[in-house]
Description:
Layout: E1 10-14, H1 26-44, E2 48-55, H2 60-68, H3 74-91, E3 98-101, H4 105-120, E4 124-134, E5 139-141, E6 146-149, E7 152-158, E8 164-175, H5 181-190, E9 195-196, H6 198-210, E10 216-217, E11 219-221, E12 230-231, E13 234-239, H7 241-246, H8 248-251, H9 262-265, E14 267-272, H10 276-289, E15 297-301, E16 304-306, E17 309-310, H11 321-328, H12 330-339, E18 347-348, H13 351-372, H14 379-386, H15 392-398, H16 402-427, H17 431-452, H18 459-479, H19 485-494
Parallel strand pairs: 1-2, 1-14, 2-3, 9-15, 14-15, 16-18
Antiparallel strand pairs: 4-5, 4-8, 6-7, 7-8, 8-10, 11-13, 12-13, 16-17
Amino acid sequence: xxxxxxxxxxxxxxxxxxxxNAKPHLGHLYSSLLCDVYHRxxxxxxAKSLFTTGTDEHGLKIQxxxxxxxxxxxxxxxxxLYPEFIRLDNFYNISFTNFIRTTNSxxxxxVTKLWELCNKNKLIYKGTHKGWYSIxxxxxxxxxxxxxxxxxxxxxxxxxxxxxxxxxxETNYFFKLSQFQDRLIKFFxxxxxxxxxxxxxxxxxxxxxxxxxKDLSISRPISRLNWGVKVPNDDSQIIYVWFDALTNYxxxxxxxxxxxxLEWKNTSHVIGKDIMKFHSIYWPCFLWGAELxxxxxxxxxxxxxxxxxxxxxxxxxxxxxxxxGKKYGTDIIRWYVLENSNLEDDSNFVEQDVxxxxxxxxxxxxxxxxxxxxxxxxxxxSVQRFHSENLSQEYNEIIKDDNxxxxxxxxxxxxxELKIVMKEAIENFDYAQILKLIWPxxxxxxxxxxxxxxxxxxxxxxxxxxxxxxxxxxxxxILCQPIIPNISEKFLDRxxxxxxxxxxxxxxxxSDNNYGSNSNSKGRELPIS
Length: 529
Ligand SMILES: Nc1ncnc2c1ncn2[C@@H]1O[C@H](COP(=O)(O)OP(=O)(O)OP(=O)(O)O)[C@@H](O)[C@H]1O
C-alpha cells in the first residue's frame, strides 16, 4: 500500500516495450522522452511516479533474426541487444523506474496467468487458421489488404504497413474478440479521453463501427514459432507475441494481483500509431476477458520520418541518437525532439535546426545568465533586497520609466501564463506548446537588460532589474528540469540555487530568498558551451 500522505498523487507511465532485433533509433528515444518528461514533472510535483520501459524479446521476428545472425539461441541474441536500449536511456537520462524483459520469469508467469483467466471465462478455443501473416508486423491481414509486391511479382505485401505477407494455414488457439465489439464501442463513446489525442479516438471508433471484429488467433504451432511462452497445458503451441508483450504493463506493477492498485488506475500507455490496434482494441479485450480493470488511457503519437518513410530498424533509415547526442549534447536533442514534434503530425529530423538550437541556448539563454552574473552586479544583494511575491509597489516607486515598467509587467505575466499552460500541456503530452512559449520569454528578458542598461543605473534600480531578470532565469530553469535536466542543473548551479530549493513550489517570483551568494565572482565557468 502506498502512503498517500507522502505524495500529492500516484502516476504510472509506460513506453511500448521495444523489439531488440537491432539497435534503437530516434523514434524509440521519442517515445521514451515523452514518458520521461511526464515522469519527471510528476516527481517535481511531489507525486509518486513510476515509469516502465523494456524489451519485447519473444516472437518470430526475433527467432528469424537470431538464426540469420547465427546465434546459438534467440536468448543469446536478445541478451546481446537489450543492453543497447538501456544504454540509450542512460545516455539521454531517461529515468525509468522499471525495465521489463519479456524473457523474465515473473513476466512469463503473468502471461500464463492472464491466459488461464481468459480460458476460465471460456474466451479461448482451438481452431484452424488460414490467412496472410506478416512476420515483420507479427500479425495476420485480411485478403482485402493483400496485394502483389510491385517490385517482386512472386511475393505479396499488405496495404497497411507495406510489409511482406505469407499465406499460412495452421491450428491455433483463438480469443473470442468478436464478443467485445459492442462493449468496446460503448466504452470508447462513454470514455472519450481513454484514447488520446481526440483524432485517434475518432479514428478507432469509426473503425470499430465499420469493421466487424473477427476472433483473434493467439497462438502459433511450435513447429513454426518456438521462441515464446508455452500455452498452459499444451506444449505444442506458443502464445502469440502480442498477448505476451502487452502483459508487460501488468508485470511492471507487480503482477495481476496488483491490478486494483492506484498505479494501474493511473497508468498512461504512450505508444506509436503503428501499434495502436494492438493497444486500443486487443489489450482492453484481453483485460476484460480476464475480468481485470483497464489502465487510465492510451496516448498515441505519430512518427519520425526519414526519406519519406517511418524511421524503422527493419528499413534502416534511422537517425542514430547516441552519435547525434555526442555531437550536440543530449539536452539539446531532448529539447529539439520535443519542440519539433506533436502527437498529431509526423516529424522530420533536420540536423541544421539542431545546430541552430544549440546556438540559441548558448547565445540567448546562457548569455542572459552570464550577463546577470557579471561582476558589475550583485545577485545576492538583489535577492536579499527584493525577494517578495508582490513587487508592484517597488516597481512603481523605484522604476520611473513607464515603458520599462510596462515591459517588466508583461514579462512577469508571460512567466505566470507559462506555468499555467505547462500544467495542462504536460498532462496532455503536448510539450511543443510549452517550449514555443519559452524563447519569447528569454528574448524579452534579454531585451529588457539591453534597453534598461542596469550597469548605468543607481544601485537600487540596478538591483531591481537584475532581480527581475535572474528570477526569470531561475524559474525557467526549475520548470525546465523535466525537459533538459543537465542544462537546468548547470543554470541553477551557476546562480547558486540550493538543491533543496529546486522543486515546483519554488517556481514563483520571490519564493527563494537566498541564492546567488557567489554568482558574480570572477572566474566562474559558463553554464553551457
Ligand atoms: N519512426 C518512429 N517514430 C516514432 N516512434 C517510433 C518510430 N519507430 C519506432 N517508434 C517507437 O517504437 C515503437 C515500435 O517499436 P519497434 O521496436 O517495433 O520499432 P521499429 O523500429 O518500428 O521496429 P521494426 O523496424 O523492427 O519494426 C513504436 O510504437 C514507437 O513507440
